[in-house]
Task: inverse folding
């Protein structure tokens, strides 16, 4: 059912929902960008509609709501282990179509890939997703070619137009709150892009032979291994473990799960001083092939959703989409 409601009423609804949910959306963090006096758009808790950035792509994805950058898995002493309590509130997340498709990838990895991840599941089960439409493509996006430009897998869709918001609602709790305010019923169709400026062509005949292509040498020269591309990507889910021992009592501490990057030094370190994929080109190859080959071979669809954030954030202007477009020639090279 579609509704039209004034923004002030929607803010009252947010106040009501905040009793049970923390509301997360892309918002401006002033002065927190990469350089001095540069802003950044990333996910944070909001209380009013006006805080949400609808007209720009967020620099970071929503994934830290479900997979925190640092997450305590349990506390330990010599005698016992204690799992932290689940958050008292659920979460509401505003996100775009590409990120909703990324959620499918996260669910596949954490819930449908062997044993379910307990920590992810308890956050995921108490999270609602509100779609933000795209009236036009953003820089570096290639969601159309990845098939992630459209979705109907949302709990609600909200579009702000001046002093009013239009809502397509599939969530009964939100619908009840809307009906408690002054509203008008109307047909609501989400905004989706049908064309991107950036195009990608993923060959159907990719094989591991392409590992031997010389195309990867370019990235050994260019990539500095900062890992930014992994941290902004909504489908990069790698993590490492860290045991923290408290200074006051070295026999007591906690185990934390922390984001990791396949592009940085130390990711492949093993006992005995062995480390795989030392050249940056090998690391780039690993990432690209995981996104457009390995994952699809296993689950039937590509891991990458074409949000373009990796291209946006790279300090060396390395383009993931350009790299993918080079694969066709690389395949011919190694045949």
Result:
């Amino acid at each position: 059912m579609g509704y039209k409601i004034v923004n002030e009423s929607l803010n009252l609804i947010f106040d009501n929902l905040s009793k049970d949910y923390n509301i997360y959306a892309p918002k401006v963090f002033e002065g927190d960008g990469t350089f001095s006096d540069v802003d950044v758009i990333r996910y944070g808790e909001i209380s009013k509609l006006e805080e949400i950035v609808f007209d720009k792509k967020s620099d970071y994805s929503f994934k830290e709501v479900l997979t925190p950058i640092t997450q305590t898995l349990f506390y330990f002493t010599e005698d016992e282990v204690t799992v932290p309590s689940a958050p008292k509130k659920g979460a509401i997340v505003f996100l775009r179509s590409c990120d909703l498709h990324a959620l499918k990838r996260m669910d596949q990895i954490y819930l449908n890939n062997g044993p379910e991840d307990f920590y992810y599941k308890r956050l995921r089960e108490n999270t609602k997703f509100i779609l933000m439409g795209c009236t036009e493509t953003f820089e570096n996006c290639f969601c159309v070619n990845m098939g992630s430009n459209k979705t109907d897998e949302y709990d609600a869709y909200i579009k702000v137009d001046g002093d009013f918001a239009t809502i397509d609602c599939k969530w009964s709790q939100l619908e009840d709150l809307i009906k408690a305010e002054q509203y008008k019923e109307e047909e609501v169709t989400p905004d989706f892009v049908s064309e991107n400026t950036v195009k990608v062509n993923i060959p159907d005949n990719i094989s591991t032979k392409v590992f031997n292509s010389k195309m990867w040498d370019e990235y050994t020269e260019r990539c500095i291994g900062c890992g930014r591309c992994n941290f902004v990507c909504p489908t990069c889910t790698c993590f490492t473990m860290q045991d923290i021992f408290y200074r006051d009592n070295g026999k007591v501490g906690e185990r934390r799960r922390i984001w990791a990057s396949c592009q940085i030094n130390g990711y492949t370190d093993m006992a005995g001083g062995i480390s795989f994929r030392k050249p940056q080109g090998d690391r780039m190859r690993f990432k690209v092939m995981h996104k457009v080959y390995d994952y699809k071979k296993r689950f039937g669809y590509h891991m990458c959703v074409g949000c373009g954030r990796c291209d946006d954030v790279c300090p060396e202007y390395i383009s993931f989409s350009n790299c993918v477009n080079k694969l066709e020639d690389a395949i011919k090279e190694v045949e």
Summary: The chain has eleven helices and twelve strands. Residues 208-334 form one domain. The chain has two domains: 2-185, 208-334. The chain has a mean pLDDT of 95.
